Amino acid sequence: MSKLGTLGARLYRGEVGYDFVGKRKIWYGISILITITAIVGLAVRGLTMGIEFEGGAVFTTPKTSISAPQAEKDAEAASGHDAIAQKLGDGTIRITIGGVDTAKSDQIKTQLAKDLKVEANNINADLVGPSWGQTIANKAWTGLIIFMILVVIYLAIAFEWRMAVAALVALIHDLTITVGIYALVGFEVTPGTVIGLLTILGYSLYDTVVVFDGLKEGQKGITKQTRVTYSEMANKSLNGTLVRSINTTVVALLPVAGLLFIGGGVLGAGMLNDISLSLFVGLAAGAYSSIFIATPLVADLKETMPEMKALKKRVLAKRAAAAAKGESAEPEDVAPFDDEDDDAETAGAVVGQRRQPTRNNRKRR
After folding, report:
1. Strand order from edge to edge, sheet including 56-60
2. Is the pTM higher than 0.90?
């Protein structure tokens, strides 16, 4: 842990760093590949909608020695519909059958009692109508659209529209990957899944906003210097918050992993899978997008501005001249920009190790 803390301090001071922004084409390619895979999985396999959205019945049996696959076969034979059976931690079995009405439910319950060798009165049956699920789905879509609009408006006001666009792209990226993995894994989509998807949007934005705040501070007066481009300044800000982002994500993932792998896998609490998988995938995708998607995309959008293009030309020209003289062509160690000092040529967080600005004694003299 002490080594990680030392690494974080060195990243913040600019002593070490990784060129995330400079290698953005690689990250864009990886993200496009992952997104295409998720979309193909969604198109081919589709989502396994729970009975809350399609309607049907859920049967919970008492403790039995019958395995879940055998119970699933018995339920499909009794109902004539596809069934999903899951063994719970206390030895009971949860069987979900879609497209079942009340009359059919009683017949299935009686047949299941015979096949599983349990009393029919001990089997709990819950019926859900499809209209209720449709209402929940409509409200979820409404909430998602309103959330996206409010996020874009807030970020455009607090930062600028380019950062708002980058954050929106990162959110869509995270949601697409999460939904695609749900389709590939085959987990049921339940109201818990919807809650998880809406929850990860906030987590996805957290790291992005932290980095954007550094970009906002770092770009002040950046056009008045000729040592770093906007992309280099953005990369410096990203490295300064990298360890913090990793620590925050790991701490958030640990309890969610406990819910997913221990609660859902070991203990058999199937309802935990609905929300924990969406949270786990969404948190990981959110941390990835804030580092590899949002910040590089902001740098691309900013460097289309005429003043940033002119800045990049001045920086490259200065480095070319320095290289011709045999001097270092790399970004130099710089101090924060000072409007009072005509020789200062930097603006906040930049590539290279930081040092304290020298005192300007000309006014005293």
Report:
1. 83-87, 93-98, 56-60, 124-128
2. no
